[in-house]
Amino acid sequence: MKVSVVITTYDRADLLPGCLAGLQVQDAPAADYEVIVIDNAGQEECQRSVESYGFRYIYEGKTGICYARNRGLEEARAPWVLYFDDDTLLPPDIVRSYISYLPQVAGGAAFGGAFTHWYKSDPPDWLRMEMGVGKFPGSNTSFGVLPESRYLIGCFFGVDVAKAKAAGGFSPGYGMKGKEVGWADETELQFRMRAAGMTVYYAPELVIEHLIQPWKCSFRGRLRYAYSHGKMSWLPTGDNRYSMASFVLDILRITFVVFPVTLLRWVFRHREWYWQNAALIVLTKYAFAYGRLSKRWKVSV
User: Fold this and answer.
1) Which parts of the chain span the membrane according to its record (predicted)?
2) Is the pLDDT of residue 296 over 60?
């Protein structure tokens, strides 16, 4: 066996079958991979769904995606674990293609691919303009070592099991905890891996689709998203130095530089923008700054 595919899920029995259906029709040899679903909510509906596809179901009682992902490391029978989010849509060749790269990343600690967006319902035009249609974390990067300034995204994230454990696994203080929005669990692990001299690889040729959750599709949701990122922007490095003076300087910069420049760009250069696009350029920066200032506030889905 070459890779253990691990899906972590919490109270999303409506979305999980879409991911499992994609895994059921993979064209990789059955002996090369397994599928494990770590249920962090303990739902009978989730268990029935997983078992109906013939995959392994495991309940992890400690709430938090890091606990679930660490459980996946313990349960894996293969030397590599490939994590997919439960709201991803997977092409039928993705597991086989991922496995085909493993000889090229021998000695690496983490290896992942790119994703594009999908929506549960047709999004407004301003949101499509904001989100774009490109691949992330970047379509301009060829296969190879990912620069240290960039990080693999958790919805399509693989790790060498032994190296992930040697780095300490996922830190439970980070990431989603039930319905509480969290980030940076995979980013913080990559930071520690690199600090220990380990290598992270990226293949933009490998692409899946990741859901833009409905709560992120509203104007208010985009502000919540920016705030939560600001709240956790310090997590990868542990450097949470952000004083009131720094906050005031950021507010002044946004108010007297970003706002007028954005307004001028909208009026004279980017008439194709919707008002929401122009407003969000400014307001998300305020939200991010407020998030950095107050890490104790919580955002829930």
Assistant:
1) 247-268
2) no
